[in-house]
Structure formats: C-alpha cells, structure tokens
Amino acid sequence: MYPGRPPILSDKDMIKKIMEGDRHAATLLIRSTEKLVANIVFRMINNYADRKDLIQDIYLKIFRYLPKFRFQSKLSTWVAHISYTTCLDHLQKYRPELIDIPDDDEWLLPEIAWQKINRETLDASQLLSVKERSEILEKLSATLPPLYRTLITLFHKEELSIDEIMNITGLPAGTVKNYLFRARKILKERLLDYYSKEYL
Amino acid sequence: MSKIHLSEEQLQRYALDGFADPVAAEHVSDCIHCQTQISAYQTLYSHIREAEASLPDFNTELLIPDLLSEVNAPDKKEAWYLYSLLSGAIGLFVAGLIVYWNTISWIFSGIGTIGLVLSLVLLSGILAMQLIELYGTYRKKMKALNPE
C-alpha cells in the first residue's frame, strides 16, 4: 500500500476485486497511488498537457497489466515503476536532452555569494509558509534534470528506500546514491545562494 | 579540534541522520562553516518533505475503464492479429513459391544436395535469430512490468 495511508485492502485482495470488475477497488487503487504517480510525472514532465496524457496512459497500463503483476514487489512500487518507465519513454521520444546528466562543475556557484550566510538565516526560513517553501523549492529545482528531481522526491518526499528506488528506476544502487548526492549538493548550493540574495 | 572541514558526503549524512564519527562531531560543534552547510542541507530536506503534494487537477476516477473485467481479460484481439499476421506471411511465402516455382527450381538446379541443405540451414538460422530477437524484445517489455 501507499506509505502514510491505512491499508483498507491488501494488495492481493485489491487486485482480485479489480479483476472481478469491482469499481470501488479500482477507485481505492487510484486514490492510494495518485500522489505517488503525480509526484513522479510532475517531476519528470514539465508540459501540462503531456502530464495529463501520461497519467491517463499510466493508469490504462496499470489496469491492463494488473493480471500480470507477480507480487515480486509492493503494488505501489510496481505502479511507480510503470509511471517512471512511461515518463522515461516519453522523454526519450520527445526531449532526449532532458535526461542528460550534467557535469558537477556546470552547476557550482561561486562561494562569495553565500559565504556570509549564517545558520540563523536558514533557521528563519522555517517561519515561511508551506506554500512559500514549496515555491522556493520549485524555483531551485526547476532546471535540475528530471531524473535528479524524481530521485530526490522519491527518497526525501516519498521516503522510499534505495532498494525500492532501484526497483522503480532499474538503476544500480551506486548510481542512485551518486545521483542523489549530486542532486542534493546542487540544490544546497542553490538554496544558500537563494537565501543569501533574498534575506541578507 | 580537527581543522579539516567535513566532506560533502559527511555533511549530507550528518544532516540526514545526525551521524558523524566523534572527531567530525567535535569539529562541527566548533566550526561555523560546517554548521551552516549542515543547516542548509537540513533546510533543504525539510523544504522537500513539507512541499505541497502534487495531485492531478482532474478527476482521476474517470480513468477507470468502463468495463474493468474486459480490460483485464486476455486480449483475444491481439492474438487474432498475431495469427492473421503469421498466416498471411505463410500464405505469401507459399504463393511466391507457386508463382515463381520455375525460376526457383532453375536457380536451385545448379546447386547440389549439399548446397541445398546448407542454404536451408542458413535460412533457418537467420529466421531463428530473428525470432529470438523478437522474443527478447517481448521478454524485456514484460520484465519492465515486473521488475525483480
């Protein structure tokens, strides 16, 4: 089941009921996975119309291939894997440059801009509203490669383990950890730069 | 106190789970630079954790197919397409053999039995390789739906 929600039906029961044509079970599946699916699609795809089409495509695939689900992972991991591969196929087809991973040097910022910033300034950022902080994060991660954005969301927001992320993305553990490290570093540099400009 | 700043990896880990070896922990307690870096990572993590959840802005329940049981049923249509394609290909091959039989028999008239057998083996090999490749692609697609 999707983390953070009480399991109403077990994965097995839910699939069985959906295959029998139970629309309520299908609704439960959508309700329990839509945040996860949206988190992946929204991080990987920028275009609004494409996002909607992809979410439709993902759920069509999920319902179509549900009988082929072999319980080798959690249902939510399988759903996330289908979402990820569908988005990746889309990116590879239309915008291959978006999944290019840049060299670290390209993203490093000069230290001068933020070296005067202190811990208090950063602590004060906690006083901002959730909406404001979400907007700041959106700004900071806007030009980050979709793969970095997705990994960061899966690990820090969805609180998935490295093993689960490996199952979803098909990337080796070392690559996942390396990309996460680089993504965090880039975001931290940008965050320091942002707060040094906004609040000092 | 150690004068060496924490590595980026140590900073990320410290901010994530507060873990550091005693030497690194002692350094952090007295180093404003490292404290700022850790605080930046902690701010970043909290921004991500508390960010507003993404949700589709349309009724996702509309995505449930009208006839669920039919969507989940084995795709007979797909099998029908496959059988038609296969019988069409065999039909074309047989028709070609009948129409061009004279030309074909003329081509092969100069080749001895061994040559004929070798040609057949070669053709079968090529065909088998194509089929294996096709099966590989199918397996890859199926594996994508059921990651280990």
Structural description of this entry:
The complex is a heterodimer of chains A (about 200) and B (about 150). With about 200 residues, chain A is mainly α. In chain A, about 65% of the residues lie in helices and about 0% in strands. Chain A has helices at about 10-20, 25-45, 50-65, 75-95, 120-125, 130-140, 145-155, 160-170, 175-200. In chain A, helix 7 (about 145-155) packs across helix 9 (about 175-200). The longest helix of chain A is centred in the last third of the chain and has 27 residues, at about 175-200. The termini of chain A are far apart. The mean pLDDT of chain A is about 80. The longest helix of chain B has about 35 residues, at about 115-145. In chain B, about 75% of the residues lie in helices and about 0% in strands. Chain B starts with 7 loop residues before the first helix and ends with a helix. Chain B has about 150 residues and is mostly helical. Classes of the chains: A mainly alpha (about 200), B mainly alpha (about 150). Chains A and B meet through helix 2, helix 3, helix 4, helix 5 and helix 6 of A and helix 1, helix 3, helix 4 and helix 7 of B.
List the helices and strands and how they pair.
The complex is a heterodimer of chains A (about 200) and B (about 150).
Chain A: H1 11-19, H2 23-44, H3 48-65, H4 75-94, H5 119-124, H6 130-141, H7 146-157, H8 162-169, H9 173-199
Helix pairs in contact in A: 1-2, 2-3, 2-4, 2-7, 3-4, 4-8, 6-9, 7-9
Chain B: H1 8-17, H2 22-30, H3 32-50, H4 68-72, H5 76-99, H6 101-109, H7 113-145
Short characterization:
Chain A is mainly α. Chain A has helices spanning 11-19, 23-44, 48-65, 75-94, 119-124, 130-141, 146-157, 162-169, 173-199.
Q: What key attributes describe this structure?
A:
heterodimer; A: 200 residues; mainly alpha; 9 helices; B: 148 residues; 7 helices; 74% helix; 0% strand
